[in-house]
Write a structure and sequence with these properties.
With 120 residues, the protein is of the alpha/beta class. It is 42% helix and 12% strand. It has helices spanning 38-41, 47-63, 84-99, 107-119, and strands at residues 8-9, 24-26, 29-31, 34-37, 70-72. The strands form 2 sheets. It has a 3-stranded mixed β-sheet, covered by helices on one side. Strands 4-5 form a two-stranded parallel ribbon.
Length: 120
């Protein structure tokens, strides 16, 4: 990916257990490890547990000093008829972040912050 000129990637993801890692460079490219993915944290019929695990993961990322917590939500699942629990999971995750003072940032802006901190 670095050799193709990508600025960032988010393929570092442990499908078996929750891992929180800080962003790191691969050549000139930034890797933003994926911390939370909808289908790996919120299972059918287990919305409450999915939300609890999501909030725990976000807090763990913060307590481990991760400047960003990467969350992947597949937009096709934002459908209250086909995926009602995942839609609620997404909405409640956003609300949790807002209620707890977490902000949202683009990868481009995150890279600017990381590179400014690297140069200081």
């Amino acid at each position: 990916m670095n050799d193709c000129g990508y600025k960032y990637d988010s393929t570092d993801f442990n499908k078996k257990k929750l891992e929180v890692k800080k962003p790191y460079k691969v050549g000139n490219m930034w890797e933003f490890p994926l911390h939370i993915m909808d289908g790996y944290i919120c299972f059918p019929g287990k919305l409450k547990q999915g939300l609890e695990n999501t909030f725990k993961a976000i807090k763990l990322a913060e307590s481990n000093g991760c400047p960003y917590c990467t969350i992947l939500f597949h937009d096709y699942q934002f459908d209250e008829k086909k995926y009602p629990e995942l839609k609620i999971w997404y909405e409640q995750t956003i609300k949790f972040c807002e209620d707890n003072g977490y902000s949202f940032i683009s990868y481009d802006d995150a890279i600017k912050e990381l590179e400014e901190n690297e140069n200081n």
